Amino acid sequence: MSTEPIFAALGDPFRRKLLENLAENSPKTATQLAELYPLTRQGILKHLNVLEDAGLVEVQQQGREKRYFLTPAPLGELERWVQAIGGKWDERLQLLKGMIENENIIE
Q1: Domain extents for the chain?
Q2: Which of 94, 23, 97 is nearest to 58 (CA)?
Q3: β-pairing, 65-70 with 57-62?
Q4: Where in the sequence is the signal peptide annotated (predicted)?
Q5: pLDDT at position 81, please?
Q6: Count of alpha carbons within 13 angstroms of residue 99, beta-carbon side
Q7: Is the CATH code 1.10.10.10 the one for domain 4-102?
Q8: pTM of the prediction?
Q9: Most buried residue, 18, 70, 92, 99, by CB count within 10 Å?
Q10: Burial of 29 (0-12, 13-18, 19+ CB in 10 A)
Q11: 27 burial class (0-12, 13-18, 19+ CB within 10 angstroms)?
């Protein structure tokens, strides 16, 4: 899975709040979430749909209600991507440090 939809979904501070809430208090319905925030149920649903499209939430139909759960797997993908990028940066810094030390710029 591409990390693009995950980054796009997490780029919105309100969606991050929704994920934090679901991480602590899953499952929740859109109605229950709308009671917690100054946003309509429809507004909450739009955000939940973006999170669902990114694979960050899962929906379970229970009777007439849809319950939303956090799906942590995409966050693991994101973490691996960040670690890979960070590792490359660390390697470059070590190379730069070695070059500077070889030039006797740092003692």
Answers
A1: 4-102
A2: 23
A3: antiparallel
A4: none
A5: 79
A6: 6
A7: yes
A8: 0.74
A9: 18
A10: middle
A11: middle
